[in-house]
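Whether sequence alone determines local backbone shape is best considered at the level of individual chains. The sequence in question and its structure tokens are set out directly beneath this paragraph.

===
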Amino acid sequence: MITITPAAAKQIRESAKQSRMEGMALRIAADRQSDGSIHYGMGFDDLNRDDDTRYTAEGIELVIAPTSRALLDGTVVDFVEIEPGQFEFIFMNPNDANYKPPEDAG
């Protein structure tokens, strides 16, 4: 369903450690906007809802609500340097109307 890159997994673990939320699952949510793009949210969550999907990617326990499942299918979460010294999580999602796959540097 969702792929977590090693760089993203490392940052997620570091964030959990810094905020004393180690051992909590990471909830990822998605909501389609009026222009077809997708807005994302993520945070540590210790709630256990019966209809959530739970699985592990790159050693990170993920939780996805039913309303976000289809929107997140095939998404890759990465942690990249956008500009020198500025790192951000990015969502590469083929379900997003504005998504353009990265070009091969090849």
In short: The mean pLDDT is 91.
